[in-house]
Specification:
With 128 residues, the protein is mainly α. The chain has a domain at 54-118. The chain has five helices and no strands. The chain is elongated and about 95 Å long. The chain starts with a helix and ends in a 10-residue tail after the last helix. The model is unreliable at 124-128 (pLDDT under 50).
Length: 128
Amino acid sequence: MLVVFAIGLLLGLLLGVGAVTSGRFTLPVAQPSPGASGIRAPAFPTIKRPDINVDTMIQLQQVRDALHAAEAMIRVDNLKGAAGLYERVLTQFDCSNQEARTGLKAVNPGRYAIVAKACPGANPLVQR
């Protein structure tokens, strides 16, 4: 059985090589476009990598951490600590942060009024 396989393989190889060299079998060849000096690779669109500001990423993470910590403090009835964290977010990072504004207004409306007046670009609808 192995001998028959080997003979068939050898015969197929000889016929295949004969067909290719005699011109009866041709492989497709990429042709250059008229006027071009050669084949060019297709043009792929370039992707611009966004500029990453590490300081901004750190500040965003600090805001998220402070907001999560304030929520945890509310769950254990530490309203003073939560108000401090909400105020920190509003005074040090972003005075228009909706989550911090809502949280501070809920736990300490007096401190919220002071912070809201100090924020020049705050939405007046949020301050009510």
